[in-house]
């Protein structure tokens, strides 16, 4: 890491620590009047991301690590016997695989394996929602009738399996039990390796190509490390294609632009105007993907240039500008300075 990036991490970590007052309020998804509720609050996915970033950025800061412990306990308290919901305390929305993946990854990262027993019920429901080996529905439902209604109500589209969610989920499962999930991971990796577009991975829910590419590459990398006997030629070739595509897409500024919107955005009536200029959020997820690949001179040069770009994006208070992260059923995408800053911190410390 360049010296400028060391300073960036320190300042961004301090910004994120300040954001933790009252549970990272800037990161929350607040929806008013949705599904007949006066207010709905989505927090688990986002707060887990911010908590993991704070844990990684300030490992020797006692105050920061106390926040990590507090927020992890708060996330665990929001779980139900069948899992975690995107909108807290909203009985209409089913648990989902993406939020489950975040909770599993959080518990692993912050060393809370003592709470893995709290995953028994959610993992049982997850297995009921396995459509094929390695492919799981995003919305986790207890019956097919319930699943169809949930997909229609919550914007899942015509295919309830979403590639970036599968990547996030299988990567998380490999962290906690690679033996149990090795077959799912192998089959899921072979399927995921065929979901790219020119080497990069569109997302159903997330803006840009960086996030989906990161989740795919992270999953391939974890499979290679956790269950190498299950690692086949398709993921290896996909990693090579992704490496070349990411390097081609880097702009002269050193960053990457979010040139593509979520594929599911049209399902909820949204439109997307591609970005021409590089953004910190897209750059952060692309850096995370590149850092999961075998290093070579081309990757090293790209990462150095990207770190310079991110340093120039940092604002006076240490944070980064809010940029569209993923679409929700509300009128605007979720965008948060807290979440952009968390992604940048993970890109430089993960």
Question: Can you walk me through this structure?
Answer:
The protein has 13 helices and six strands. It is mostly helical. The chain has a two-stranded antiparallel sheet. Strands 3-4 form a two-stranded antiparallel sheet. Strand 1 and strand 2 form a beta hairpin. The longest helix has 17 residues, at about 5-20. The protein is globular and about 50 Å long. The relative contact order is 0.13.
Topology:
Elements: H1 3-19, E1 29-32, E2 39-42, H2 44-57, H3 62-77, H4 97-109, H5 120-128, E3 130-132, E4 135-136, H6 144-153, H7 163-176, H8 178-192, H9 210-226, H10 233-249, H11 280-290, H12 297-313, E5 324-326, E6 334-335, H13 337-349
Antiparallel strand pairs: 1-2, 3-4, 5-6
Helix pairs in contact: 1-2, 1-13, 2-3, 2-4, 2-13, 4-7, 7-8, 7-9, 8-9, 9-11, 11-12, 11-13
Indicate the multimeric state: single chain
Strands, count? 6
* Largest sheet composition: 2 strands, antiparallel
- How does the helix and strand content classify structurally? mainly alpha
Q: What's the Cα radius of gyration?
A: 19 Å
Strand content: 5-15%
Q: Roughly how much helix do the residues carry, as a percent range?
A: 40-55%
H-E string: HEEHHHHEEHHHHHHHEEH
How many helices? The count is 13
In whole angstroms, the N-to-C terminal distance is 12 Å
- Major sheet strand order: 1-2
* Sequence stretches where pLDDT stays below 50 over 5 or more residues: none
Averaged pLDDT: 95
How would you sum up the global shape? globular
């Amino acid at each position: 890491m360049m010296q400028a990036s060391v300073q960036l991490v320190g300042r961004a970590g301090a910004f994120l620590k300040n954001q933790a007052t009252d549970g990272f309020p800037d990161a929350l998804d607040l929806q008013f009047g949705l599904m007949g509720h006066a207010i709905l609050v989505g927090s688990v996915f986002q707060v887990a991301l911010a908590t993991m970033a704070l844990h990684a950025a300030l490992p020797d800061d006692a105050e920061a690590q106390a926040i990590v412990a507090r927020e992890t306990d708060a996330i665990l308290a929001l779980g139900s016997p069948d899992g975690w919901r995107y909108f807290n305390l909203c009985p209409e929305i089913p648990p989902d695989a993406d939020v489950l993946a975040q909770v599993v990854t959080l518990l692993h990262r912050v060393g809370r394996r003592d709470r893995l027993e709290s995953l028994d019920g959610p993992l049982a429901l997850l297995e009921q929602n396995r459509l094929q080996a390695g492919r799981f529905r995003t919305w986790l439902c207890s019956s097919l009738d319930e699943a169809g209604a949930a997909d229609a109500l919550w914007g899942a589209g015509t295919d309830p399996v979403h590639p970036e969610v599968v990547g996030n989920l299988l990567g998380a499962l490999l962290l906690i039990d690679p033996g149990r999930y090795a077959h799912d991971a192998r089959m899921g990796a072979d399927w995921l390796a065929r979901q790219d577009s020119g080497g990069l991975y569109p997302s159903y829910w997330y803006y840009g190509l960086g996030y989906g590419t990161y989740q795919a590459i992270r999953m391939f990398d974890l499979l290679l490390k956790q269950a190498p006997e299950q690692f086949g030629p398709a993921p290896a070739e996909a990693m090579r294609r992704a490496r070349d595509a990411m390097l081609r897409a880097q702009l002269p500024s050193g960053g990457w632009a979010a040139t593509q919107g979520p594929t599911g955005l049209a399902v909820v009536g949204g439109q997307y105007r591609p970005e021409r200029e590089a953004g910190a959020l897209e750059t952060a997820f692309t850096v995370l993907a590149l850092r999961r690949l075998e290093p070579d001179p081309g990757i090293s040069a790209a990462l150095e240039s990207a770190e310079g770009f991110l340093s120039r994006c940092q604002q006076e208070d240490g944070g980064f500008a809010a940029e569209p992260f993923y679409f929700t059923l509300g009128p605007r995408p979720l965008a948060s300075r807290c979440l952009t800053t968390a992604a940048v911190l993970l890109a430089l410390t993960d």
